Every structure is written in structure tokens, then in C-alpha cells.
Amino acid sequence: MSEVQSHDFGISIVIPNWNGRSLLERFLPSVLKAAENYEGKWELIVVDDGSTDDSIKFLQKHYPLVRLICNPGRGGFARAANRGFRSSRFEIVILLNNDVEVKPDFILPLLDHFSDPGTFAVASKSYDLDGKTLRDGGRIGEFRRGLFRVYQNYDILNPSSSPQNSYPAFLACGGFSAFSKEKFHRMGGFDELFSPFNWEDTDLSYRAWKRGWNVHYEPRSIVYHKPNTTIQSRFQKFTIDTISKRNRLYFTWKNLSDRNLLIQHLFFLFGSLFSSLFERDFAFYPAFLMAIRNLPEVLKKRRKEKRHRQRTDREVLYLTSLWSEHGGEIVQS
Length: 333
Description:
The protein has helices at residues 21-37, 55-62, 77-87, 107-111, 181-186, 200-210, 229-234, 237-255, 259-278, 284-293, 295-306, 313-319; strands spanning 11-17, 42-49, 67-71, 92-96, 100-102, 119-127, 134-136, 138-144, 147-155, 167-168, 176-180, 214-225, 329-332. With 333 residues, the chain is α/β, with parallel strands linked by helices.
């Protein structure tokens, strides 16, 4: 894989926004600075998802270079991101949350990987806004107790500058990753069944892995992010837990095809109907009922995706575990 020069790719930076005027004011200048630092062609798109604050007026007044796309009503992250991808002009799309600050040189290390035609997405390293606490490294996926778990990170303490040393990631976070637009569209983009938030990026990345493509972690590309800034400030914890648990079931029912792992999952579901009551996990019940209600749609999507599978679940879990061979260390659970 040859090193990509700065002018080889045009990039579209897409930022979904919902009532994030204060976040745009704080974080957008760093994104614009990084874009201007990039020597190739670029564009910056903000997709406003039905904001009721003055986000639109703020952008029109202070950032005339930004392409502003306005959804008529709120549809959630997946819909806003999909519209941004459809409106983008260039072959690589960098998707950012509106609460992400970026380093001026975060773009080029991401692009190094796209000279490999098998690359679907590349995820950045994120620190907390304090600049010291690692939030997201290479995301580790595992199947345990009947469910996929994607909460652990690994990091590469001394990353190579060579793109030939590619580090696998179970998922590319939708808040700070670069994507092949052509492959994104071939997959139908983010599944809007997961709206308004959570697990849509895990679903997209996992489908890409099973189609035979690769998702990378790039520790040389650094951003700063405080997770769930928008979600936690606008939704109650019970609502967030319910949506997350529902979407986790969607993800599992839609993508898990290994027979033995499916049996483990069914045992988990049966046990959870009883154990959640004793554990006071009351969000499980509305999540399960909502997921069951949409089961026909989930199974329809499952059958459609099955036609494109090139890898098994176990192959994906194996390939995304190879980070340890590159000297990766688990840094967060």
C-alpha cells in the first residue's frame, strides 16, 4: 500500500447538528482550520436536523463557507448523516459530531488507508476535552453472555507512521471517522431503524466487515470529545438506556448468523426476562417490546444483508482481535 499524498483525495466533512449552536461556536473553528490546512479539495457540510435554536442563523452569519442542509424535522443522527453523505461531492467523507474538536493535522493520517481498495472506514483516536484522558482508541468487539460488547478500547503507544501498519477496529465511531462514500452508498448508509441514536455506527461497521471490507483505527489522527454531550443534556437516562438496549437487540437480530452464538443469545433473552426484574433493569422490558414490534422489519433487513456476506461472525471477531499482534494494549473497559 503506497502512501497517499495530500492532494490525492477530495474530502467532504459532514457534521450533523441538532440544537447545537453553542457547540458549533466552540468546536467548528478547529474543524475549519484543519480543512484549510489540508492541501487537497475539500468541503464542509453541516446538516441541521430540525434545530429550534439559532444554529442556522449562526452558521449563515459567521460561516458562509459551510454548506448548510436543513432537514424539515428531527429524524436523528442516522438520517442526518445519510443526507450529508448523499449531498457530499467527494469520495472520502469525514463524519464528525458537532461537539468534537480536532487537531489541525488529523486528516492526512486517515487518508493514508484509502489507497487500499478494501478499506471501508478509519477511526480517529479521541481524548477527553482535558487532552489527557483517552476516550476512544481502537474499539474491541467480543461476544459474551449472548451479546456483542463493544465498550473496550485498545491503543498503540508508539504508532508507526507507515500506513502499512494498519490496526483493526471493530467499529468506526460515527462521531470522528472517515468513510469510503462509494462503499457507504453500496451498503445503503446508516440504518435509520436505529434512530434517534446509538448502535448505528456499530451496525454499519459490522456489515462492512462481513462484506469483506476493513475498518481501521488510526492513532495518529487525534480529536477531542466529551461523549454524549448532546444526548445526555436532552434525554432522560431511562430513555437513553431503553433506546440503547433496543438497538443492541436490533443489531444482534439483524447481523448475528453463527448458529451456536445465536443459541447463546436466545438463552440470554430468556434469562433476561426474569433476571432484569431482580436486577432492577427496568429499561430492558420496553426495549424488548419495541424490538419485537419491529422484528419483521429487522428480519427483512437481515435477509437482504445475508446476500452480501463474505465473512462469518467468527472470522470478523478473529480479524478484529489482531490488534494485539501490533503491540496494542487495552487501556479502557
